[in-house]
Specification:
Elements: H1 3-32, E1 44-51, E2 55-58, E3 64-66, E4 68-73, E5 77-82, E6 85-86, E7 93-96, E8 99-102, E9 111-119, E10 122-125, E11 129-133, E12 135-136, E13 145-150, E14 155-157, E15 164-165, E16 169-174, E17 188-190, E18 196-198, E19 207-215, E20 220-223, E21 227-232, E22 240-246, E23 251-255, E24 260-263, E25 265-269, E26 273-278, E27 288-291, E28 296-299, E29 308-315, E30 322-338, E31 343-345, E32 351-360, E33 364-369, E34 372-373, E35 383-386, E36 388-389, E37 391-396, E38 405-413, E39 416-426, E40 429-435, E41 440-444, E42 449-458, E43 462-467, E44 470-471, E45 479-485, E46 489-496, E47 505-513, E48 516-527, E49 531-534, E50 539-543, E51 548-550, E52 553-555, E53 563-569, E54 574-576, E55 586-588, E56 596-598, E57 607-614, E58 619-629, E59 639-642, E60 650-654, E61 665-674, E62 682-688, E63 693-697, E64 703-712, E65 726-727, E66 741-744, E67 749-753, E68 768-774, E69 783-787, E70 794-798, E71 805-814, E72 817-827, E73 841-846, E74 849-853, E75 866-875, E76 886-888, E77 894-896, E78 904-913, E79 924-927, ...
Parallel strand pairs: 2-11, 13-21, 23-30, 31-39, 41-48, 50-58
Antiparallel strand pairs: 1-4, 3-8, 5-6, 5-9, 7-8, 9-10, 9-11, 12-15, 14-18, 16-19, 17-18, 19-20, 19-21, 22-25, 24-28, 26-29, 27-28, 29-30, 30-32, 32-37, 33-34, 33-36, 33-38, 35-37, 38-39, 40-42, 42-46, 43-44, 43-47, 45-46, 47-48, 49-52, 51-56, 53-54, 53-57, 55-56, 57-58, 59-60, 60-63, 61-62, ...
Membrane topology: Single-pass type I membrane protein
Biased composition (Polar residues): 1214-1228, 1265-1274
Region (Disordered): 27-49, 1173-1274
Length: 1274
């Protein structure tokens, strides 16, 4: 017997039991009620207000409550029925109010439950509640199974799950990803029976699989026995047409408002794809979706039009597609069109309850009265009950008390049944208020408001309104009163329109009938309206890509807080702008502002923008038109027409405009290209808009194409399409050559140059240049040259006479004859001066300036026009390459400035005319006097607590003979006020260290140092050390890296800390570590200004020692922590020294070989480069060899060793070794580096003096100075 048959039996048993109870209830009711006076005021039959769901799944053995609540007056009592029989509240069951408590749910408690609530006026019944125990039965198979397939075959692996309540979730896992669902696609899928299907199995699918059944109610997950899949490899898997291996039934019923699911699974190789369609119709796009990678068609919210034939088609390209068609019909469980409503009637009144239901098929409607079928109750002449297909009615006429009852409408078809209850209550009760107007109503001036008042009573009450205790009549146009209701209740709505401040006050609603009256008051407050006082304006313009702000400022009642929202309409309808979207283009202009900022505007942003301010009571809005402007669109192709019969070079151009880019077009740019490709596009005219035509004057003998570009305030449009070609005829030349240049070249020669005349400007064929020349005053031309290549723009005239004045004429000519000529004059080329200045004298004016004089040079030796005299000079000790000569002009004093003091210079003078420089004079040598010395090198200070050591180097630029140094020492306070100054003269040039002793602890010092030479004090340098605080030194910290043990010694390095009292000296205490009576020994102290490393001698190899560092100064000593270290050697065989290990020797040999190769390459490069430089130098000076000074015809002295330098070292200022040229290669490092653990860099004495201070340029060993880089001349 199926579940539907069981359900029918249960309904029958329930009906019989209900009839018996209802008859008993009716008898009891008749005995206690008066049939003429009606029910007491406020009474009503029961009504079920809450119940458990109709399908109630519970956990076994855990107490559970089946809910049931009902309203009614008096309060109803409750009882329950299971499978139609009244339950006894003993053993398994108990009551909690109306709820039924099942103490220990089991299979015995499964069944159909119903709750009944009754009082004197009727009985209400809940809907059926199916009570089910959750369970999960596992799987039909209990052993592991092996499935063997050939690669490419269809494979189906059964799940074999048993029943589970509630319906479980099922998925598959494999041993490749334990605990994770296997990935599904159109090749691997799960059918509706939960079997795992492979449309074509692969070798990679080999593995152990399990079906997982998960019951969320029980919180259990069951695993099937292992399904082992073995896939045999096939060398060549043959293609197999798609075949449908799972399809829905040929006929499927879909239920209204639910989901229709149709699934097809196909096998084949390659993997087939599934497509769905509805024959003769398109699938509903908004309700159609696909699952399982297209295998399953899902149509949601089924409607009647979804009936029809649905076809799934599988194809994979290996054969003919295969398909299957299923027919879908739409069915429906019953659903309500109109449910019965609770009805209150008064004595002798009429009451009606209607019930209408729909479904497919249409359901039959029946009635239960107090839970008893209408066919089983006693007849009542005042009551008419109608039942039938699709609807029914209960009607009571001339009602009396006994007619009060609960009526349940039951709609049933083959797919199910639904229930709806409504009571009919016969009563007489005073008026009561069911809905009072709001106690406080707020509205806005100029608007309106509504007040609603509702009441009920038996008989039906009447509602009236007053304002400030004065009756309100709906004849006043300000007021409108609308009433609604039924036989027992009424609703009245008062509408007040166009309110002003005077309309604020108390409005009263009065509800009354013959048994009583009630009243409610609503106080109405009228607020000031919201307005936008600074609106966005009519139009806002912005260039595309920029940002724009649209202003909006809101004025509102101080008690109302507005919410400001922006909307826009760009032509597709209004949309709200989200100003809080991260990274969005729309945002508030500033914090606290209601104005809108639009970033990165685009033309599509053009539209209407609305600022809308909304309060709880009103709203206001203002809008503007945002215009985003961009460059125009391209105009049409221009049309060319000739505008003169006289000349074809006069044309008219016309075109039409494209789009303006939301910005007015201001002008059009007309450009052209010609048959001369090298010209490209040229602009010929600009026309102001709105004109779209232009008059142009063209060049003869040219073929043109034209295009037009539109311009607005934003930019230019793309070019228009090209015009058709237009050609002009040849014409005579009308312009004389301009910008002709005459340049003197070689002696007796003149070069004539002129601008190139492009073919575009030649006006016709056979173009040429004509050049003529003659002496001034002559009528006849000495020469006449024609040049037919237009690219040739120069010609050299040779008359054989130096510095000869000529008149030159240049003109253009074409096939129609020559054009106008242009006349010019100039001189031929000059020769080289032949005589050097004589009796040159050089006198030092000061330490860096000399004055040079010489005898007047004869004009006949200049061979041209005298321009100036060139003074060549160089430092004797350093032959500077590429030194520019000084230039002195005739009839002026000749000075050379910015020379290096205390250096010997050699001077020579040469004559320069307009083109050439003559020979140099005999060299003259001058020794410059001493000058101001440069600052000392690398001035540093080393402060301790009671003394400061100042150290420096000789100046990089001594500018004389250094005879000593000058120190100025002073302290200063925190306000930078200097104290007493101490002047320290040092007369020994080799003394470069000074100790300030004593010095005040924790004090700032300002120390100035000058070098002294024969000139006097040199430039100064300063250092500002601060002494360390007084007191015993801070505790020394000795890191492991500061202790370096040897075989019979230990080196201990002291690192001065950056803060606290400084140590002046330190010593080391040590003893053997593992010897109880070991003697504690002490090394002699080491002054930290002389060194920072102590060697502990005479130790035993391979022995551990305890080492302690003691820091000391004049205020005391501080002992550091004891350290343990071990000397090398001893009983353990020492490792071989690295320098005797084989691998080290091999590496050393490789390094030496590479260095030798590198040395040879450097020598070869040096030799080749030297020769190249000299040769290049000679080539540069070819024809003017006198410009390079020679020493006794010995060649280039700058490439020879100094005579006073027998070792061949390069002179000062020459390119030396990398070591000499990089001051950064100093061995000194800062004390900060030592504090950071850098212990590998000390000076020769092991001292850390010299570890402070900035690095400066290191001076060279001698006092030679290079020449000044730049000099000025007077």
């Amino acid at each position: 017997m199926d579940r539907r048959h069981l359900l029918s039996v249960a309904v029958c048993l329930l009906g019989l039991s209900t009839i018996s109870l209802a008859q008993q209830d009716a008898a009891a009711t008749a005995e206690t009620q008066d049939s003429t006076n009606g029910n007491p005021p406020g009474t009503s039959p029961p009504k079920i207000t809450k119940q458990s769901p109709s399908y109630f799944v519970v956990l076994p053995k855990q107490p559970v409550s089946i809910e049931c609540e009902a309203s009614g007056t008096p309060a109803p009592g409750y009882y329950w029925k299971k499978d139609g029989a009244v339950l006894s509240m003993t053993g398994l069951y108990s009551m909690d109010g109306g709820n039924l408590v099942v103490r220990r749910p089991s299979e015995l408690t499964n069944g159909i439950y119903r709750c009944f609530a009754n009082n004197t006026y009727g009985t209400a019944m809940s809907e059926k509640i199916e009570f089910v125990i959750a369970f999960a039965d596992g799987f039909k198979d209990s052993e592991s199974t092996t499935f063997t397939f050939d690669e490419g075959q269809l494979a189906t692996i059964p799940c074999n799950q048993k029943e589970s309540v509630p319906a479980p979730s099922v998925f598959w896992t494999d041993d490749a990803n334990p605990g994770n669902k296997i990935p599904l696609d159109n090749r691997v899928s799960i059918d509706p029976d939960f079997n795992l299907r492979f449309s074509n199995i692969r070798v990679s699918d080999t593995g152990n699989y399990q079906c997982n059944v998960k019951n969320d109610k029980l919180r259990v997950q069951l695993l099937s026995p292992i399904k082992e899949i073995v896939v045999r490899s096939v060398e060549n898997v043959e293609g197999r047409p798609a075949t449908l291996v799972y399809t829905p039934p040929a006929s499927v019923e879909a239920f209204r408002t639910e989901k229709l699911r149709l699934k097809c699974i196909a096998e084949g190789f390659p993997t087939p794809t599934i497509t769905w369609n509805k024959e003769g119709e398109t699938l509903p796009e908004d309700r159609t979706s696909y699952e399982s990678y297209g295998q399953e068609l899902v149509i949601s919210d089924v409607v009647q039009t979804d009936v029809g034939s649905y076809k799934c088609t599988a194809e994979n390209g290996a054969g003919t597609p295969t398909s299957f068609t299923t027919t879908v019909t739409v069915q429906s469980t019953p659903y309500w069109q109109n449910k019965p409503e609770d009805t209150n009637v008064v004595i002798n009144d009429r009451g009606v309850l209607d019930c209408e239901a729909e479904g497919i098929p249409v359901p039959r409607v029946t009635w239960l009265v107090n839970g008893v079928p209408s066919t089983d109750i006693a007849p009542n002449p005042r009551r008419t009950i109608t039942e039938g297909v699709g609807g029914g009615r209960v009607e009571i006429r001339d009602a009396i008390t006994e007619d009060s009852a609960v009526f349940m409408c039951v709609a049933t078809n083959e797919h199910g049944e639904i229930f709806a209850s409504g009571f009919l209550n016969v009563e007489s009760r005073p008026a009561e208020m069911t809905d009072a107007p709001k106690r406080n109503e707020i509205t806005i001036e100029g608007k309106g408001f509504e007040l609603t008042c509702a009441g009920q009573g038996s008989p039906k009450p009447v509602i009236t309104w007053t304002f400030q205790n004065n009756p309100i009549s709906d004849t006043d146009p300000k007021y409108s009163i609308v009433e609604d209701g039924n036989t027992a209740s009424t609703t009245s709505t008062l509408t007040v329109s166009g309110v002003s401040i005077a309309d604020g006050g108390d409005y009263k609603c009065v509800i009354e009938n013959g048994f009583g009256s009630v009243m409610a008051t609503s106080t109405v407050t009228v607020r000031r309206g919201t307005t936008i006082i600074v609106g966005p304006g009519d139009e806002v313009f912005v260039e595309e890509g920029l940002e724009v702000v649209i202003e909006c400022e809101v004025d509102h009642d101080e008690t109302l807080e507005p919410t400001v929202t922006w909307y826009r309409d760009t032509g597709a309808g209004q949309e709200q702008l989200d100003l809080s979207l991260p990274g969005g283009r729309f945002r508030r202009a500033r914090t606290g502002s209601d104005s809108l900022k639009v970033l990165n505007t685009v033309v599509e942003d053009t539209g209407t923008y609305e600022c809308r301010a909304v309060t709880s009571e009103d709203e206001a809005s203002a809008s503007t038109q945002l215009v985003v402007q961009t460059a125009p669109s391209a105009p049409s192709a221009p049309i060319v027409t000739q505008r003169s019969d006289v000349s074809d070079t006069m044309v008219a151009l016309s075109w039409t405009s494209g789009g303006d880019g939301n910005a007015r077009i201001t002008e059009y740019i007309i450009s052209f290209e010609t048959n001369f490709d090298d010209l490209g596009w040229q602009v010929i005219d600009t026309v102001s808009a709105p004109s779209t035509q232009a008059s142009l004057d063209l060049s003869p003998w040219v073929t043109y194409h034209f295009r037009v570009v539109a311009v607005n305030d934003i930019g230019q449009s793309p070019p228009s399409p090209l015009s058709e070609s237009y050609s002009t005829n040849p014409a005579a030349l009308t312009e004389a050559p301009e910008n002709v240049k005459l340049d003197a070249t070689d002696p007796g020669k003149m070069r004539v140059t002129w601008p190139e005349v492009h073919p575009y400007d030649q006006n016709g064929p056979e173009f040429k240049y004509i050049i003529k020349w003659r002496e001034p005053g002559d009528q006849a031309w000495m020469g006449n040259e024609e040049i037919i290549e237009y690219e040739v723009t120069e010609y050299e005239i040779d008359v054989g006479e130096m510095y000869k004045e000529l008149e030159v004429q240049v003109l253009y000519s074409n096939s129609l004859g020559p054009g106008p000529a242009s006349d010019w004059s100039g001189f031929t080329g000059e020769g080289t001066p032949t005589q050097a200045p004589q009796n040159v004298e050089v006198n030092a004016e000061d330490s860096s300036t000399v004055v040079i004089t010489w005898d007047e040079v004869p004009d006949s030796t200049v061979n041209g026009q005298l321009q100036s005299f060139l003074v060549y000079y160089s430092m004797i000790e350093v032959q500077a390459q590429g030194q520019s000569p000084a230039e002195c002009f005739p009839n002026t004093d000749c000075r050379v400035q910015n020379l290096t003091p205390f250096q010997s210079y050699e001077f020579q003078v040469a004559v320069r005319n307009g083109q050439h420089v003559g020979p140099k004079s005999t060299p003259v040598t001058v020794k410059m006097p001493q000058g101001e010395s440069g600052p000392v090198y690398e001035l540093t200070a080393f402060p301790l607590s009671d003394r400061i050591v100042v150290k420096w180097g000789k100046p990089a630029s001594p500018n004389g003979v250094i005879t000593g140094y000058h120190l100025n020492i002073s302290s200063y306070d925190n306000n930078n006020r200097l104290g007493n100054q101490t002047v320290v003269p040092i007369s020994d040039a080799e003394t470069t260290t000074y100790e300030v002793n004593p010095a005040e602890p924790d004090t700032n010092y300002y120390i100035v140092v000058h070098a002294v030479n024969g000139y006097g004090l040199g430039k100064f340098d300063t250092v500002e050390p601060k002494t360390r605080p007084a007191g015993a030194p801070v505790k020394p910290i000795v890191a492991e890296s500061q202790i370096a043990p040897g075989k019979k010694y230990i080196n201990v390095t002291f690192v001065q800390k950056d803060d606290g009292p400084a140590a002046n000296q330190f010593y080391v205490q040590y003893k053997e570590a593992n010897k109880e009576d070991a003697e504690l020994k002490t090394t002699p102290p080491l002054d930290l200004l002389k060194g920072s490393m102590i060697t502990v001698p005479d130790l035993q190899p391979g022995t551990e020692y305890l080492v302690t560092v003691v820091a000391a100064n004049d205020d005391g000593e501080t002992i550091g922590d004891e350290q343990t270290t071990k000397t090398i050697g001893g009983a353990t065989q020492a490792a071989s020294p690295i320098f005797v290990q084989g691998w080290f020797i091999v590496v050393l040999i490789v390094i030496v070989a590479l260095l030798c190769i590198l040395l040879v390459l450097c020598i070869l490069k040096s030799q080749r480069g030297g020769k190249y430089n000299v040769s290049d130098k000679e080539q540069q000076r070819k024809g003017d060899i006198e410009s390079t000074p020679l020493k006794d015809e010995g060649g280039f002295e700058e490439f020879e060793p100094r005579k006073d330098n027998p070792d061949g070292e390069l002179p000062r200022g020459s390119q030396g070794s990398l070591r000499d040229s990089e001051p950064g290669s100093s061995d000194t490092d800062s004390l900060k580096e030592y504090a950071d653990g850098e212990l590998g860099k000390f000076n020769e004495e092991g001292s850390f003096i010299g570890q402070y201070g900035d690095k400066k340029q290191r001076p060279t060993e001698d006092t030679d100075q290079s020449g000044a880089a730049y000099s000025t001349f007077v």
